[in-house]
Design goal:
Fic-like fold; 54% helix; globular
C-alpha cells in the first residue's frame, strides 16, 4: 500500500506560500518569452512549491501517479476530490500528454490573436479566463500528483493570466475559501469549466478593485 499524503506537515504553510510566490515571480519574468506550456514545467512548479517541506515520500514532489518502476509509491496511488475521482494512475501519463498538446494548441491560437503589450478587449479577456479555467480544471480532473494538485492547478491559471498581461490574481496557498470556488472545482471534475470561468472573472474584478 502506498504511503498516503493527505495533509501538509504542521507549520509548513508559510514555506509553501513563500515558495509559490517565488514561482509567481518567475512566471512574471518569463511571460514575455511565451514559452510553450509543458507537463515538465508544472512538475518543476510542484517541486519548487514543496522545496524545504518534508513529505511522506521525497519524490512525491514533482513525480506523477503512473506505473513508473523508479517511483513505486506512486504506482496504483489513486486520488480524488470529494466524491469525484482523479483518473486512474495507469492512465495519468496519456492524459497528461493530451493535456500538454491541448494547451499548446490553445496558446498558439491566443498568441496569434494578441500581441505582447496589446490592450485586452472583452472577447480576448473572456477567452483568457476561459483558458485559465480549462487549464485549472483539466489539471484538477487528472489529479496527477499524490497531493498538491489544486495549488498546481492555480499556478496553471496564473501562468495563463500573466502570459497575456494580467496580474497573478489567483491565490495559490491557501486554497480560495469561497464556496463558489469549491463548487466550480467540483464541476470541473465533471468536465464543466464554465463555473470556474465565472469565478476567475470575479477574482480578477476583486483584485483590480483592491489594487487600483
Amino acid at each position: 500500500m502506498a504511503t498516503p499524503w493527505n495533509d501538509d506537515p504542521v507549520r509548513s504553510a508559510p514555506q509553501i506560500r513563500a515558495n509559490a510566490a517565488g514561482v509567481a515571480v518567475t512566471m512574471l519574468r518569463e511571460a514575455p518569452a511565451r514559452q510553450a506550456p509543458s507537463v515538465a514545467m508544472a512538475q518543476e512548479w510542484h517541486r519548487e512549491i514543496h522545496r524545504g517541506v518534508t513529505l511522506p515520500v521525497s519524490y512525491y514532489a514533482g513525480e506523477v501517479r503512473d506505473t513508473d518502476a523508479p517511483f513505486p509509491e506512486l504506482i496504483g496511488y489513486e486520488v480524488g476530490l470529494g466524491l469525484a475521482r482523479g483518473v486512474q494512475s495507469a492512465d495519468v501519463p496519456a492524459r497528461l500528454q493530451a493535456f500538454e498538446a491541448a494547451m499548446r494548441q490553445a496558446v498558439r491560437g491566443l498568441d496569434g490573436s494578441h500581441r505582447l503589450g496589446q490592450p485586452l478587449d472583452q472577447p480576448m479577456l473572456t477567452a483568457i479566463l476561459r483558458l485559465m479555467a480549462i487549464a485549472h480544471g483539466e489539471w484538477v480532473r487528472i489529479h496527477p500528483f499524490a497531493n498538491g494538485n489544486g495549488r498546481t492547478a492555480r499556478l496553471w491559471a496564473n501562468w495563463v493570466a500573466v502570459r497575456y498581461g494580467l496580474p497573478v490574481f489567483v491565490q495559490v496557498k491557501p486554497r480560495p475559501a469561497a464556496l463558489l470556488y469549491a463548487g466550480a472545482a467540483m464541476a470541473s471534475m465533471r468536465g464543466d469549466h464554465s463555473a470556474m470561468t465565472t469565478v476567475f472573472h470575479d477574482m480578477l474584478r476583486q483584485y483590480i478593485a483592491a489594487h487600483p
